[in-house]
Amino acid sequence: MKDSRGMKSFDEYYMKEAIKEAEKAYDSNEVPVGAVVVYREKIIGRAHNQIKLLKDPTAHAEMIALTQAAAYLGSERLLETTVYATIEPCAMCAGAMILGRVKRLVFGAIDLKTGAFGSVLDLNKLKLNHKISVTKRILENECAALLKEFFKIKRRGRLVA
Amino acid sequence: MKDSRGMKSFDEYYMKEAIKEAEKAYDSNEVPVGAVVVYREKIIGRAHNQIKLLKDPTAHAEMIALTQAAAYLGSERLLETTVYATIEPCAMCAGAMILGRVKRLVFGAIDLKTGAFGSVLDLNKLKLNHKISVTKRILENECAALLKEFFKIKRRGRLVA
Questions:
Q1: B21 given a catalytic annotation
Q2: Is B9 exposed, middle or buried (0-12, 13-18, 19+ CB in 10 A)?
Q3: Please, which residues bridge with residue B48 across strands?
Q4: Across the interface, do B67 and A52 touch by the CB < 8 Å criterion?
Q5: Are B100 and A57 in contact (CB under 8 A)?
């Protein structure tokens, strides 16, 4: 299942789960980003953005999913986990993944404004004590489409208001 | 009170509060880092590292204090706040401060291994949509001494064990 072709379908399966989370965010009027954390093929964390709901700038999908995964594992080390995120993580979320020793990150859309694995910076290129294996652009169009639609409606709302 | 000399004593007052938090971490066998968030001269968030206690890689002092401050303000925007941290924040915590639009950061000790405001990177120098006014090395020796003592005892423990 995990040859290069099998790995892709494997990754797409979990990314679809992350997209389901992003859709929940969309329905709640939050920036539509979702994330799941996978350990031994099991989802042990899944979350969507809850910044507006919780009124908390740290409540990104990835952060909530990482905290859930750590609770599941009973450890602050998320060794052997893979994080699936619908968009390239920001410095906060990327930093949290490195602190948690996440093994692998798979993300969908590139984030040219805040992405911390290649866009505005690349945490993997700094002298930190852990590096994460990163796979980009899995189901990129689906991930990006949700965000585009969300911001299009937001802009329209501002024009009308 | 807030001329350059007054500002320093003002900053030292709040840094001492952050150091009290770091001491709590030390007493709990956590890496001794503390943080407070100040808004209109009032402390609205205060916390110490709780990574081991909560078994959560995101439970840095700064993150917990930011979440408390957001709850106090009832907003994900921490406008007009100052964060006092005993050590230079890592990428996760620095990223969270930028997301939260924190106005000013005052920190104690430099962190050459993970510091994200000048050491391994400087988030203020990237094209992000917010910059934070940073004051470094306030009560640096006191902040660093706690960390040095903690790691000295840790190393000794490893040699004995």
A1: no
A2: exposed
A3: B34
A4: no
A5: yes
